Amino acid sequence: MDILHDNPQLQGVRQFAQAFARQYIRPIARKHDEEESTPWDLMRMAQGMLPQASLLDERPDRGEAPDAAKKPRVAARMSVVGGEELAWGCAGISLALAGSGLAANPVARLGTAEQKAEFKRCLTGLDEHGHVRVAAMALSEPSTGSDISSLSTSARRDGRHWILDGHKQWITNGQSASVYVVWAQTDPAAGRVGVRGFVVPRGTPGLVPGRKETKLGIRASETAQVHFEDCRVPDEMMLGVGGLAGGLGDTKKMLDSTRPAVGAQAVGIARAAFEHVLERVRAGSVRGTPLASHQHIAFELAEMETEIQASRLLVHRAAWMADHHMDNVSFASMAKAHAARTAQWVTMRAMAILGEEALEPGHPVEKWYRDAKIYDIFEGTGQIQRRIIAKGLVGQNPT
Amino acid sequence: MDFALDEVQELVVRTVRRFVERDVRAWAADADRAAAPPDALTRAGRELGFFTDAVPAGHGGLLEGDYSHLIRALRGYELGRGCAALAALLETNVEPALAIQRWGSDAVRDQVLPTLAAGAGAATARDSRGALTVETDGDDLRISGRIGPAPALGVARWLLLAIDDAALVVLDCDGAGVTREALRPSGWRAARWGALVCDRARIPGTAVLADRVAAPSAIPEVLTWYRISLASRAAGVAAAAMEHAERYGRDRVQFGQPIGSFESILRLRDDAETGAAAARLMALHAGWLADRAGDEASWAAAADAASRARVLAGDVVARATVDAVQIFGGYGFVNDYPVEKLMRDARAFEALLGDERFDRILAAKGERP
Question: How far is the alpha carbon of A146 from chain B, nearest alpha carbon, in Å?
């Protein structure tokens, strides 16, 4: 099975993303990592490629066209093929480019026409800094990392409004977003069913963007806290109204559907490190003996390539299943967990082979080593993925 | 066989541990952010004798009799528990001071050792891949090429330079033909890293500690000292990572229970703690062997033990710090908590002096001294 074989559309996506990553992302990756800055210029240039618009345009409202929904799609496969290439360029920049998609996804899945229009309106034009407008998905909280069913941000009804109170953490675009999709508990007695999403534009009184985090890796992608203090949101901005599902179960399902894409990014990081060290090995020698002729080095390269290929196949399979409307929960978790482990291991071994060279400031492999770690943490930690896989194996509901 | 520490060893461990827990840990995060050590480190290092304990008393230092690599490994572990970068700065004078004492001419001893006793710094670097060009110029050597990156080399006055097969020399970092680059890499950020670009930099004959004939036996001895120290410090960093993870796992509740009580987390910690303990013992054993080494065979045994200790400690610290970040989850990835620094710091333990596993393989095939 090769999703690229005989598929000119996906081959085209790969070719385009590869060229884009090589020409535009790689040259600025070190700068944005060192400065911990968002690549606004690139984002402005690539505005047409950003995911929020296409996500909102392509999805029909829930309940419409059930027959169309059963036809195979290509979106998941496109996201893994393109995602690997962009992360090969720089994972942080690829996340900056894709960050708004995290928020656009639930709006596309659960939103009414009015909510979609409001979300799009918030993302139209440039912000007060001349930056392309971005969106933020505000789900995680200081005390709620992996356990998203225990959200403490509350949504209290007040006439035709909801009042949001709480703190969000590790929010992509949390400081700069022009619109937020905020997840809050509307009915503590209802547990996870009571958790709902709200579309909240920047500037809404009580929405306070918080401190930007200094991070180990993916530094070109902004991560910040967001605070809600008596933040009034009109009733019609609650996702999942009018008979549409919109509880936490849908949120989790959405996270599952993004895992193959996240795994693909990890594959991109691993491949970047592998290619770098492969080039060094091809060119290097010790006392006149080519490095590649040493089994110690050659077998290590062979293992790296094997793990990268295996990770990519898992990622592609999980995406292919998603596009064919198959239950991919376990495969999505396997793909994400394996790719994350591969990225960490490959970058670590690549640094060991390079030796002191990899200690130079700004060395790309050292950056990729730092970038790789988040892939075992966000979108469900490696432990959460294994929990999902194991539950499936023993016949329990994996979600 | 006796694993108990004697009185002196106990005193060293207790003193360094107190210093680490009271001061070094308090300085570590700010030093990392500033990419510079606090001034207090130099004062404390002098008071505790870190910079001069390998300098003979006759040249103004504290060393009387033989230097103990076992004691250095004991303190290295404690320092590693505090901060890898500050530990590197505190340990940086040892190899140059011992090497000059062991192989140096009177001229180089009289020139360098008193400066170390008076507060000058020294660093150690190795050229294992033939990056440097070495020319003979009468009794002197001329060196060209780039040396580093190495910790403390951004500020060191002297460099102990091991050029595999060619020479073990002392280089004046402020000498003619030497240009210094101060570097700020991602790991051990406060360790005053640097590199030297040499353009036919002159090494006077008196500063050549070992020439092409003697270097193959002198360099492995220096590397043995360094590896023991690196291994012990790496074990300390791994232990610290798990100390942080244990505390965090106790406080952090997810799914209704402290995450430290989940079996997957317990296993991560258990494996890492076992690894750190094993690496520490291997480093101590290598130090013990080095303290007793005299002839070629006993040095070979110490060198082998030091190299194995470093391989294990490099693996252990890599795994333990990555797993500590994993246990902290999102908090582990941000700079407010200590473990992301540990993960950055871990890499230098494996990368300094080159790929240790590869070195061992080359040595086994007779392709590396």
Answer: 7
Answer left, alpha or beta for residue A363, where phi above 0 means left and psi between -120 and 50 means alpha: beta
Q: Has residue A333 been placed in a domain?
A: yes
Distance CA A378, CA A251 (A): 15
B94 touches chain A (CB under 8 A): no
As a whole-number percent, the residues of chain B with pLDDT over 90 amount to 89
Residue A273 lies in a domain: yes
Residues 205-224 in B contacting A (C-alpha not used; CB under 8 Å): none
pLDDT digits (tens, 9 = 90+) for B335-359: 999 999 999 999 999 999 888 888 8
Token code pair at residue A124: 């139209």
**What pLDDT does A379 receive?**
87
Residues 242-281 of B with CB under 8 A from A: 253-255, 262, 264-265
Compute the average pLDDT of residues A267-278: 98
Which residues of chain B from 125 to 144 reach within 8 Å of chain A, CB to CB?
A: 128-130
Asked if residue A231 is part of any domain, the answer here is no
- Residues B213 and B226: their CA atoms lie apart, in Å, by 22
Nearest to B186 among A147, A344, A366 (CB): A366
- In this structure, CATH architecture of domain B215-364: Up-down Bundle (1.20)
Domain count, chain A: 1
Mean pLDDT for the stretch of residues B121-145:
93
- The answer for residues whose C-beta is within 8 angstroms of residue A83's C-beta and 6 or more apart is A94, A98, A261, A262, A264, A265, A268
A383 → closest Cβ in B264, B314, B344:
B264
Q: Report whether pLDDT(A245) > 70.
A: no
- A253's tokens: 């399902």
Residue A194 lies in a domain: no
Residues of A in contact with B322 (CB under 8 A): 344, 348, 373
Q: Given the cut 0.85, state whether the ipTM is greater than it.
A: yes
Q: Structure pTM?
A: 0.93
Closest approach of B191 to chain A, Cα-based (Å)? 12
DSSP A96: H
Q: Which band of pLDDT confidence, cut at 50, 70 and 90, is reported for residue A4?
A: confident
B237 in Cβ contact with B276 (< 8 Å): no
Are B186 and A146 an interchain contact pair (Cβ–Cβ within 8 Å)?
no
**Domain that residue A332 falls in:** 248-393
Residue ranges of E strands in B63-173: 122-127, 133-137, 140-150, 158-163, 167-172
Q: Superfamily assignment of B120-210 in CATH? A: Butyryl-CoA Dehydrogenase, subunit A, domain 2 (2.40.110.10)
**Measured between beta carbons, which residues in chain B are less than 8 angstroms from residue A213?**
334-336
Instruction: Write down the H helix ranges in B293-355.
Output: 296-328, 330-333, 339-351
Smallest Cβ–Cβ distance between A358 and the set B130, B322, B351 belongs to B351
Please write the tens of the pLDDT for every residue from A8-40: 999 999 999 999 999 999 999 999 999 999 999
Q: How are beta strands B122-127 and B158-163 bridged, if at all?
A: parallel
CATH H superfamily, domain B7-103: Acyl-CoA dehydrogenase/oxidase, N-terminal domain (1.10.540.10)
pLDDT for A290-344, tens place per residue? 999 999 999 999 999 999 999 999 999 999 999 999 999 999 999 999 999 999 9
- Angstrom distance (rounded) from CA B185 to CA B182: 10
Return the residue of A nearest to B322 by Cα.
A373
Of A217, A286, A363, the CB nearest to B129: A286
Q: Give the model confidence (pLDDT) of B195-217 as tens digits.
A: 999 999 999 999 999 998 888 88
Q: Which residues of A are known to be catalytic?
A: 379
Q: Give the residue extent of every domain in chain B.
A: 7-103, 120-210, 215-364
Q: Which CATH number characterizes residue A388's domain?
A: 1.20.140.10
